[in-house]
């Protein structure tokens, strides 16, 4: 089968013919119809510091997918050949304190598809049955693989009350864009979107942002405070990880408001806890991944009901062999979500 591998510890990746995996006990073999490029995949591709400390080449990349089950390993109980599935990429232990408390998204023994084991940038991938997500047939094949990052957006948006609230989203990458759509579907009244990239801000408008601010040209603090008549917003979602943003978000959230943090700064940052947080009664939520399986369920219902339309976010579709084109677009910031087709685009 064709697969995209990180074969050596340098920037780039390689398309190779490799053996089709054999599903082990409790696993299924999926024929991958679509797979999407995540920011994590891009980090591995450019071989940043995080990747250098985590990835052990050679390894097949990729962790967002949709496809069809074609083979069952020993001991599989519920899955059937022909099922239309996606997968949760975080393979959890099931017995640590977090798992036992129902907090599997922060399992201390997590293994990740495409990071710690071979992934889905390939024609076939073997997945534990416990990680399968059975897709609603109405969800299109190019939307189904991005339900996993959608779960991150859902977790971030719904970490507090949304109905009738105002919101600012800092960072309009794919998950930030998804968060805008989720927030609108869940009752947020007004949304300001902030980024430094006009291409992404145009996508934010398509996802129903009410105000877009290019922070390279205009102070987001001034723009948002003016838009809210000096009140500030009820909710801020930090989705960028840009260090400069962490000084801005606490200036635009109203006293008593909520800040939910998904973006990952590259280094430790100074924070004025006394003035910006404690004395203003701000609630801060650190968000990691998506809750298993609550956020998957919410995503399925939003998509299948028509309340959420992610089609504006999928901006490019390529054959798997053209993966480098997608990676280059991500480097340039000239894309939303990129979907690859291991079997070719029909």
Annotation keywords:
single chain; 346 residues; alpha/beta; Quinone Oxidoreductase, Chain A, domain 1; Rossmann fold; seven-stranded mixed β-sheet; six-stranded parallel β-sheet; 11 helices; 18 strands; globular
3D architecture notes:
The chain is of the alpha/beta class and 346 residues long. The chain folds into 2 domains: 2-150 and 291-341, Alpha-Beta Complex (Quinone Oxidoreductase, Chain A, domain 1); 160-286, Rossmann fold. Helices cover 27% and strands 26% of the residues. The protein has 11 helices and 18 strands. The chain has helices spanning 39-46, 49-54, 97-100, 147-157, 174-185, 198-206, 220-227, 245-252, 273-278, 294-305, 323-332; strands at residues 2-6, 14-17, 27-36, 59-60, 64-72, 84-87, 90-91, 111-112, 124-128, 132-134, 166-170, 190-195, 211-214, 233-238, 253-261, 283-286, 314-319, 337-341. Strands 3, 5, 6, 9, 10, 17 and 18 form a 7-stranded mixed β-sheet that branches. Helix 8 (245-252) links the parallel strand 14 (233-238) and strand 15 (253-261). The longest helix is centred in the middle third of the chain and has 12 residues, at 174-185. The radius of gyration is 20 Å and the shape is globular. 45% of the residues are buried. The mean pLDDT is 96.
In whole angstroms, the N-to-C terminal distance is 18 Å
Mean pLDDT: 96
The CATH architecture of the largest domain can be given as Alpha-Beta Complex
Gyration radius, to the nearest Å? 20 Å
Instruction: Kindly provide the name of the CATH class of the largest domain.
Output: Alpha Beta
Main beta sheet: strand number and arrangement?
Answer: 7 strands, mixed
Would you list the SSEs in sequence order as H and E? EEEHHEEEEHEEEHEHEHEHEHEHEHEHE
Please tally the helical runs, counting DSSP H or I stretches of 4 or more residues.
Answer: 11
CATH topology descriptor of the largest domain: Quinone Oxidoreductase, Chain A, domain 1
CATH superfamily of the largest domain: Medium-chain alcohol dehydrogenases, catalytic domain
Helix content: 25-40%
Question: Could you list the spans in which at least 5 consecutive residues all have pLDDT below 50?
Answer: none
């Amino acid at each position: 089968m064709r697969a995209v591998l990180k074969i050596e510890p340098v920037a780039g990746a390689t398309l190779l013919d490799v053996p089709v995996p054999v599903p082990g006990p409790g696993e299924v073999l999926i024929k991958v119809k679509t797979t999407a490029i995540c920011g994590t995949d891009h980090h591995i591709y450019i071989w940043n510091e995080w990747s250098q400390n985590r990835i052990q080449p050679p390894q097949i990349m990729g962790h967002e997918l949709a496809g069809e089950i074609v083979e069952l390993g020993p001991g599989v109980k519920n899955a059937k050949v022909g099922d239309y599935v996606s997968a949760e990429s975080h393979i959890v232990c099931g017995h640590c304190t977090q798992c036992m408390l129902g907090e599997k998204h922060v399992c201390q023994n997590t293994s990740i598809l495409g990071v710690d084991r071979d992934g889905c940038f390939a024609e076939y991938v073997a997945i534990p049955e416990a990680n399968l997500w059975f897709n609603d047939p109405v969800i299109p094949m190019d939307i189904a693989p991005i339900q996993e990052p959608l779960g991150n957006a859902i977790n971030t948006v719904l970490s507090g009350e949304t109905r009738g609230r105002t919101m600012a989203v800092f960072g309009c990458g794919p998950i930030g864009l998804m968060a805008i759509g989720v927030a609108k579907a869940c009752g947020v009244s007004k949304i300001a979107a902030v980024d430094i990239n006009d291409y992404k801000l145009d996508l934010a408008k398509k996802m129903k942002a009410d105000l877009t601010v290019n922070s390279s040209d205009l102070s987001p603090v001034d723009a948002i405070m003016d838009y809210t008549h000096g009140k500030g917003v009820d909710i801020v979602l930090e989705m960028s990880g840009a260090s400069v943003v962490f000084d801005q978000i606490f200036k635009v959230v109203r006293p008593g408001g909520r800040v939910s943090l998904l973006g990952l700064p590259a280094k430790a940052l100074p924070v004025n806890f006394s003035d910006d947080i404690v004395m203003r009664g701000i609630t801060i939520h650190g968000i990691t991944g998506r809750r298993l399986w609550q956020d998957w369920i919410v995503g399925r219902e939003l998509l299948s009901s028509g309340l959420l339309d992610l089609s504006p976010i999928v901006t490019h579709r390529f054959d798997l062999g053209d993966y480098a084109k997608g990676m280059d677009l991500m480097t340039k910031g000239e894309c939303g979500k990129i979907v690859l087709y291991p079997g070719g685009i029909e």
